[in-house]
Amino acid sequence: MSLSFLATTTPTTTSFDRRSSKATHSVARTLIRKRFTPTTCEQKHEGNGVGVNAERSGIDRRDVLVGLGGLCGATATFGSNMAVGAPVQPPDLSACRLANDLQLVNRVDCCPPYGTTTITDFVLPDQSEPMRVRRSAEALASDPVYLEKFRRAVALMKALPADDPWNFMQQAQIHCAYCNDAYTQVGFPAVSLQLHGSWLFLPWHRYYIYFWEKILGKLIDDPTFAIPYWNYDQPSGMRFPDIYKNSPKDQNPLFDCIRNPEHLNGALMDYRYEFGDPSPTPEQEESVILENQKYLYNMFAENLFNPGNFMGQPISEGQTLNAPGTLENLHAIPHRFASQVERPRWHMGNFHTAARDPVFYAHHAQIDRLWTIYKERRAITTPEFPTDEWLEASFIFYDENRNVVKCKVRDCLDPTQLRYMYQTDEKAWLNIRRSYYTKKKAAPRSAGADELVAISEFGSEPRLLDTTIRVLVTRPKASRTQEEKDEAAENIFIDDFTFDHTDYAGFDVFVTKATEGLATADLGEFAGSFVHIPHAHGPSDHRNILHLGITYLLEDIADAEASEQLVVSIVPRSGEVTLTGVSIQLVPKEGTS
């Protein structure tokens, strides 16, 4: 294409759990043996204390959301023993290749229309610029002035010429290119550049939606314009947001027809949703909301001073790794919830096409917001990973001034320096622990829940996760003191498991106490999930890693803290996963090594 769109620049370089624990077997992939172009909606329409302090957080020390004096500073330990080297570098745009849609046989073209042009370094905006305030999609549903502005901006973006880098589809293709194998790492032609499954996930997506927001503001000449976020951490926001829906009288540019229609009419989102699961009944909704909130609580409480667990594990140039943090695993659920159940699960359920649905950006604004909450509650001024391997990692984007810019992680860590912030919202999940356990204790026990069953160790051979696997795992130390807990987190390590990256995969993890090699049939407390959406991840021999904190979870399991062994249960949810082992390890917290 012509580079007329580019500006001229100068280079600067439980029984309480209502879900079934039955295995969900993988479904054979649908292979489409010819180039497949998705039908668009338009075509169809046409024919288309945590660290802060105990008083502020309202949560006692046992809930972890408090300030731990000796931990607020110094050097981070990444929560893993993985070595890091040089930072991942931005791609060579001129070497962009056809990307993989792993639900298809053929490759797809996601390359940007600015493969050979001047690249300049990103410069933070003038700090005198007005602050853009991102509000919840729920709150904005009652603001007709904002809605008209937002719809107009997206409509203008969609109406731009097809080869304009600001065009809505061109913007969506950025996600496809970075996440579906269109780029290799510079200097490592056999290694894909992948922005999921590591500590690059959050900063890359922050830049991505930042520039989308800035371009929309430019199109409507409003420097104060801010995109919404989907506030699914709040009970009232755990449903598909109304502003992205359509009606017969209203051809809404925020609407996308390639969604799950069963989830557009008030269905509650379950944080452990799997394709095909029925929506919670009215009688189940209170329980699901409580479990969702406890999921969030655990994410923050267990991982506050272990950023690798929360944000994704470290990766350096030349490495291939799939080690998503708890926040990224949660992020896969709204992708699935919005997606069609039928394969290939365009748009939100497939990373090749996910950003073609406008709700993608509200979803990722919420993930970005949860990152800001994490950082605020840590109350630590140093970056989560104070190392150049993270801070100097960089990406390339097309900005609101039609420049191609190189963006470093270090420049996106403070949203206020990017001149945006989030409205203050209630965070009821920060105080959910007591009510959760009160209701759990009052819930009737299911038949057979207290029956003792024999549990064995994992063994030395890999095991196919085609039914629930329960294993005895020896702890590094039982009956740890509070000081010991402040110094090191107790983690479940599920390392080097394998699965088909071209398909969907997922499993849930539970933990309970063991008594002389026996445990009740009740799986115990939910510790976390692994949730995979197909995307290219380089060579098939890369590592798949899941680390889940359980330090404070054990305090709420009777007698578990004194147990020398725990029972870890892995419940298959989708895909064909093979496990190679399960262990429990102590990981030093920040400032303690």
From TrEMBL:
Annotated Tyrosinase copper-binding domain residues: 357-368
Organism this protein belongs to: Aquilegia coerulea
Protein name in UniProt: Tyrosinase copper-binding domain-containing protein
Listed GO MF terms: catechol oxidase activity; metal ion binding
Record keywords: Copper, Disulfide bond, Metal-binding, Oxidoreductase, Thioether bond
Coiled-coil zones: none
PANTHER family tied to this protein: SHKT DOMAIN-CONTAINING PROTEIN, TYROSINASE FAMILY MEMBER
Annotated region (Disordered), positions in chain: 1-21
SUPFAM superfamilies tied to this protein: Di-copper centre-containing domain (SSF48056)
Pfam families for this protein: PPO1_DWL, PPO1_KFDV, Tyrosinase
Family in the record: Belongs to the tyrosinase family.
Entry superkingdom: Eukaryota
Lineage, uppermost ranks: Eukaryota, Viridiplantae, Streptophyta, Embryophyta, Tracheophyta
Cofactor: Cu(2+)
